[in-house]
Amino acid sequence: MKKFFQAAIFLGVLLAFVQPVVGQIDTTRGRYYQPIFSNVTVTSNVVYGSAVTFTGNTQALAMDIYQPTGDTVSRRPVIIFAHQGGFVAGARTDQYMVDVCRRLARLGYVTASIDYRLLFLPYDTVNIARAAIRGMQDMRAAVRFFRRDAATTRQYRVDPRYIIVGGSSAGGFAALQVGYLDKDSEVPAYVDIAAMGGVEGQSGNPGYSSAVLAVLNLSGATESATYIEPGNVPLCSVHGTLDAVVPYFKGRIGSSLPPKYVVGSGLLNPRASAVGVRNTLRTLRGAGHIPFENTSAAGLAYADTAFWTMRDFLRPSLGQPGTVLSAAAAASTKRSALQAYPVPAAHEVYLETPAGTVFKPQSVELLDATGRVVRRFRWETATQLVRREDLRAGVYYLKPKSLPTVRVLFE
C-alpha cells in the first residue's frame, strides 16, 4: 500500500510537469504593465513560412522575435506586429517596429516583427486590395507558427490562447483583416479570393488556427466596417484626425490609384461599440499619418501615447485588471496610475486612471511651466476631458489632490 501511494504521488508530480497549464496568464508583480525586465533577447531572421509573390516567385517569410531576457515563465502571450509602407516598402527592422517590440517585451510579452509580401503591379485598385490580402495571409501564417511551436517544440514558450496581432498603417490593414475578415464571401469579388488561396492563404503552418485574442490597429483601415461583427475579438485603435494617407473616417487611399475608399478608426471603433465588441479608440486630434513613428520630441510623445494605450487595453484580455500582491507593489502602481492622452495635444486631453484603479472624485489644479495655477476644476469621472481653451502652447502640469502630478504638452 505504501508503494502504491508513493507511485501515485510520483505520477501526480509528473503530470503536473507534463500537462499544459490552463490557468490565467500571470499578471502579478506588475508583469505586462511595468517594465520589469531590463534587457530583451532578439532572435533574428526566424522563417515562419513561404508564399508566392505577385511575380510568381516564392518568398521565404521571416520575423524577428523579442523575448524578455531571463524570463522563466513557461506560457506567455505574444504580440505579432506588421510594419507600415503601403504594401510597397518597409521591413520588420523599421525603427518603430524594433522600439515597440522591445518596449512591450520588457513588460513580459513575447513580441515579433514580421516581413510580409510587398509590391504589386499594375498599380491599381484591384492589386492594392490583393496586396492587403497577401499581407493578411502572411500574418495568419505567423499566428499559426506560434500555435505550432506551442504544440510541438515550445521554443518560444507562448500560450496559444493569447496571440495578439497589430500593425502600423499597411500593417494595420493586415491586422484588422486577420481579426475581422473571416469569410471568403466578405472579400470583394474583383479580388478573386479563391485564386489567392482563400482568407487563410497558403503561407505556412497549415492545420493550426489563425484566430487571435485582440487587434492593435495603428493608423490602419479596412474595406468595410461591417467586417466587425458581434462576438469578434476586442479592437484597439490609435489614429490621427488629420491623417492624409489613411483616413480617420472614410476616404480614398493611393493618390495615383483609381478611387478606392476605405474605412478608418473613426468609424471602425464606433461599429465595434454598436455590435458589442470591446474597444478603445485613442484619437490623436490634429495629428497626421503615423505620428508615433516620427523621431521628433512630439513623435516620441505620440509613441508613448500609443504604447500606453495598447498596454492598458490589453490588460483585461489577460484576465486580471492590474492585480498587485503587496503594499509596495500597490504604491508602485499608484505612482504610475495617472495618465493624460494624447501627448502632445492640440485642443484637449483626457485625464484617466487605468483599469483596476479605484477612482475617487477630487479637485485638480492645472499649473503652467513656472508652477503658477492657471485653472482649477473638479475631476468627477474616471476619464475626464480637459479642454485647452485659451491656454498658450507649452508644458503644463495636472495636479490632482491625492494622485501624482502628470505632465501635459499643448502644441
From TrEMBL:
The keyword Hydrolase applies. The keyword Oxidoreductase does not apply. Keywords: Hydrolase. InterPro entries: AB_hydrolase_fold, BD-FAE-like_dom, GDXG_lipolytic_enzyme. One of its GO terms (molecular function) is hydrolase activity. Residues 63-196 form the BD-FAE-like domain. It comes from the Bacteria. PANTHER family: AB HYDROLASE SUPERFAMILY PROTEIN C4A8.06C (PTHR48081). This is Alpha/beta hydrolase.
